[in-house]
Automatic annotation (TrEMBL):
Protein's name according to its UniProt entry: DHA2 family efflux MFS transporter permease subunit
Organism: Paenibacillus roseus
UniProt GO molecular function: transmembrane transporter activity
Domain Major facilitator superfamily (MFS) profile residues, every copy: 24-484
Membrane topology, as annotated: Multi-pass membrane protein
C-alpha cells in the first residue's frame, strides 16, 4: 500500500504527488483523449460515409446523435458504477468496450454495423471522464486540484477541437475507415499499459442497483436529449411527434426519477449534492455556458459554409485556434484557480466570452475569415477560463463521498445543456431567418436573400446566447465564492491489487 500523504515533498513538482499517482492519471488521460477525440472525428466524415454506404443525411446523423444519446443515458449511472467496481476494473472495461466498438466500426460492411460500433464506443466513452475526475479528486488535495484539473484539461479541451480538422485532412486523402484504424492502436496500447501498470484508487463497495432508477434515468435523460437534439438538428419542428413525445416522456420520467432518488437509502444518483450552494450555483453556471458553447460550435461552421461559402475543411480550420488556446490556457487557469479561486476567473471569462458573442452577433456577409477565426478564439478563451475552475470549485464544495455523484451530475448537465442549447438557438436562427425572408423588400436581390436571412437569424441566436451569459455573469458576480471543504479533504490511499 502506498500512502499518498508521504509525497508532500513532491507536491511542488506535481499536483498528483507520487510517481505512482502520476502514472495512474497518465494512463487514464491517454484513454480519455482517444475517446473524446473520437466524439468529433466523424463530424466532417459524414458526407463520404453517406456516399459509401448509401444512406441519407438523416440516417447518417444518427452516428453523432446516437453516440451522444448513449453517453447521456449512461453518465448518470457512473456514480453507482464508480462505487460498485474498482478503478482498474472499470477503466479496463471502458477501454475494452471503446476498442471493440472502434474495430467493429472500422470493419463495418454497412450502416447497421457502423452504428453498432459507434454505440459500443459510446458506452465506453461515457465512463471515462467521470472516472478520471473522481480519481483526481481522490488523489489530489483541495489546494492543488486546480492545477491537476488544468493539466488534464489540456487533453480534454484539445481533443474535440482538433477532431474536425484532423478528420477533414484524413478524409481528403484516405477512406473514412482510416479514422477508426488510426485510433485503434492507441486504444490497444492503453489497455495493455493499464493492465500491467494501473492500480486501484479506492476499494469497491457492495452498493445495490435499483433497476427502476436505471430505467427512469435512461428514459428521462435519454428522452430529453433526443427530443431537443432532434429539434436542434432540424429533424422536426417543436410540434412534431419526434420532438414532443420524447421530451414529454423524458420530463415525466425525470420527475419520477428525482422523487425516487430522494426516498432511497442508497440512491443511484445522490441529489444531496445540491444541498451545497456552491455546487448548485456551479451547475447552473456550467449549464448556461454549455448551452452557449455547444450552440456556437454548431452555428459558426453553418455560417462559414452556408453564408460565406467556405469548405467543411476550412470551417474546421477556423475553429482550430480556439481549441489550441483552450489547451494552452487550461493549466494556467488551473494554477490561477488554486491561488485566487473561481470567482475572478469566472467573471473575466464571462466578459471575454461575451465579447466574442457580441462580435458574432454583428457579423455581416463581408466579414473576413480571419475575423471569424479571431472571434471564435476569443470565445474559446473565455470558455477556458470558466469550465475547469467552476467545475472544480463546485466539486470542492462536496463531501468526498459525494464526488462520484457530483461528477455524474455535472457530466449529465453538460449533455443536457448542449442538447437544449443547440435546439433553442438553432430554432431562433431558423425562425429569425424565415422572418427576414418573409419581410425582405424588393431591394434585396433574390440571390443574396438566403445568405442575408441566415445572417439575420444568426444575429438573433447570438444575442440570445449573450443574454444567457449575462445571467451567468450576475450569478458569478454576486454569489460565486470559494468552496469550503465538507467532510474532510486531502489525499486518499492508493491500493495496489
Amino acid at each position: 500500500m502506498i500512502l499518498a500523504s508521504s509525497v508532500h515533498k513532491e507536491a511542488k513538482q506535481s499536483a498528483f504527488g507520487s510517481k505512482s499517482n502520476r502514472l495512474i492519471v497518465l494512463v487514464m488521460v491517454l484513454g480519455v483523449f482517444v475517446a473524446i477525440l473520437n466524439e468529433t472525428l466523424l463530424n466532417v466524415a459524414l458526407t463520404p460515409i453517406m456516399a459509401d454506404l448509401g444512406v441519407s443525411p438523416n440516417t447518417a446523423q444518427w452516428l453523432s446523435t446516437g453516440y451522444l444519446l448513449v453517453i447521456a443515458v449512461l453518465i448518470p449511472a457512473t456514480a453507482f458504477l464508480i462505487q460498485r467496481f474498482t478503478t482498474r476494473g472499470l477503466f479496463l472495461t471502458a477501454m475494452g468496450l471503446f476498442t471493440i466498438g472502434t474495430l467493429i466500426a472500422a470493419l463495418a460492411s454497412g450502416f447497421p454495423m457502423l452504428f453498432a460500433g459507434r454505440i459500443i464506443q459510446a458506452s465506453g466513452t461515457a465512463l471515462m471522464f467521470p472516472l478520471l475526475t473522481n480519481v483526481v479528486f481522490s488523489l489530489v488535495p483541495m489546494s492543488q486540484r486546480g492545477a491537476a484539473m488544468g493539466t488534464i484539461g489540456i487533453v480534454i479541451t484539445f481533443a474535440p477541437a482538433i477532431g474536425p480538422t484532423l478528420s477533414g485532412l484524413i478524409v481528403a486523402h484516405y477512406s473514412w475507415r482510416t479514422l477508426f484504424y488510426s485510433v485503434l492502436p492507441i486504444a490497444v496500447f492503453v489497455i495493455i499499459f493499464a493492465f500491467f501498470r494501473l492500480k486501484n484508487v479506492s476499494e469497491s463497495s457492495p452498493t445495490k442497483v435499483d433497476p427502476l432508477s436505471m430505467v427512469l434515468s435512461a428514459l428521462g435523460f435519454g428522452g430529453i436529449v433526443y427530443g431537443f437534439s432532434s429539434a436542434g438538428e432540424g429533424h422536426g419542428d417543436w410540434t412534431s411527434t419526434g420532438v414532443t413525445i420524447p421530451i414529454v416522456i423524458g420530463g415525466a420520467a425525470l420527475i419520477w426519477f428525482v422523487l425516487r432518488q430522494l426516498t432511497l437509502k442508497q440512491p443511484m444518483l445522490d441529489l444531496r449534492a445540491f444541498k451545497s450552494f456552491t455546487f448548485s450555483l456551479s451547475v447552473i453556471i456550467m449549464l448556461i455556458v454549455m448551452m452557449a458553447m455547444f450552440s456556437t460550435m454548431m452555428l459558426v461552421p453553418i455560417f462559414l459554409q452556408n453564408a460565406l461559402h467556405y469548405s467543411p475543411l476550412e470551417a474546421g480550420l477556423a475553429l482550430l485556434p480556439g481549441g489550441v488556446i483552450m489547451g494552452i490556457m487550461s493549466p494556467i487557469t488551473g494554477r490561477l484557480f488554486d491561488r485566487f479561486g473561481a470567482r475572478g476567473l469566472a467573471l473575466v471569462g464571462l466578459l471575454v466570452l461575451s465579447g466574442g458573442l457580441v462580435g458574432f452577433a454583428f457579423m455581416s456577409l463581408s466579414v473576413s475569415y480571419i475575423t471569424v477565426t479571431l472571434l471564435n478564439t476569443l470565445f474559446m478563451l473565455g470558455i477556458s477560463m470558466l469550465m475547469m475552475p467552476v467545475m472544480t470549485n463546485g466539486l470542492n464544495g462536496l463531501a468526498p463521498a459525494l464526488y462520484p455523484h457530483g461528477t455524474a451530475i455535472i457530466g449529465t448537465i453538460q449533455q443536457v445543456g448542449g442538447a437544449v442549447g443547440m435546439a433553442l438557438l438553432v430554432t431562433i436562427m431558423t425562425t429569425g431567418a424565415a422572418d427576414y425572408a418573409a419581410n425582405a423588400g424588393a431591394s434585396v436581390a433574390a440571390a443574396d436573400l438566403p445568405a442575408l436571412s441566415l445572417a439575420a437569424g444568426m444575429r438573433q441566436s447570438f444575442l440570445l446566447a449573450l443574454g444567457l451569459v449575462a445571467i451567468a455573469l450576475v450569478l458569478a458576480l454576486f454569489f460565486l465564492k470559494r468552496a469550503r471543504p465538507e467532510g474532510g479533504g486531502g489525499m486518499q490511499q492508493v491500493h495496489a491489487h
